[in-house]
Amino acid sequence: MDKMMKVAVMKAIGRIEIEERPVPELRDNEVLVKVGYVGICGSDVHYFETGAIGDFVVHPPFVLGHEAAGTVVAAGKDVKNLRVGDRVAMEPGTTCGHCEFCRTGRYNLCPDVQFFATPPVDGVFQEYVAYDADMCFRLPDNVSLMEGALIEPLAVGFHAANQGMAHIGQKAVVFGAGCIGLMCMLALKAEGVTDVYVVDVVEKRLEKALELGATAVVNSAHEDAIERIMALAGGYGVDLAIDTAGADVTVNQAIRMVKPGGTIVCVGYSKSGKVTLDMSVALNKEITFRTVFRYRHIYPMAIAAVAAGKINLRDVVTNRFTLDEIQEAMERSVSDKVNIVKSVIEVAGE
After folding, report:
1. pLDDT band at 1; cut points 50, 70, 90
2. Which domains does the chain have, with CATH numbers?
3. DSSP H helical segments within 233-348, as ranges?
């Protein structure tokens, strides 16, 4: 194995360069993963474009990327669950394991989580990663490494569906047809929700939602979304709404669209961090609000759904780049948000 590896390093806002760094050394509980694919997340784009998300500020040099899958090429002496040659998806957060939240199974809420590409923790736009074996999940033979990289955003979608207690016989609406919105739609369908409608203002994204199996789509820039969804849902409204847009307008549309006793799951962050709610309508309907912060205990479920053919991840991807093309990939992700639904970086491929 080479002693050095390529790493895509963010040197400044809007500038990433490829440099060589030593291949990381293994701890006893870790595996060394040769990275195959890494997805470009909206958070990566935001850090690249602005240098910060809320209180998380990038101090270059910094490595982006947290949606990754690859092949195990070495294992520490304490690793029992994996062996060299296994193909794995990496869940990108490690936690303390002993706080109240970890001990009660809500480890995504651990205050000491170390999450790839969340400052100051470097991400995985690089050729090799040494990582906790317990957070690496083996991929079945019929799940590609590219699909493995997309297990991370799919996990968000499943967590949102689970927070909303999605089940067969329901009608649901998803606001936003970007990657996370599409993952929520796919998760809802996999969990048996009978009708899933998608609302957005970008026609190409709505076309992608239909391609992936949406029951119907609504372009709210061209028609009254509330009126249309109420008609599609048969009058009372939908059982469940998932908002990935994080905007005042979409959350309040959701309040109007769900039936009395319905549930709204908020996934998207607003630009200001605040949303003003039409609370009188929410109170009159006795609506339940749930929220999502990443995910927990989802990777095995998500991988099984893809392996069983219940989820089509391949067709979510609209653009592919190599690691050497990372600057172009990030620039296009900023400038062409209308056409790019999901980009992946091919590091080593399959």
Report:
1. low
2. 4-150+317-346 (3.90.180.10), 157-291 (3.40.50.720)
3. 248-257, 279-285, 299-307, 326-335
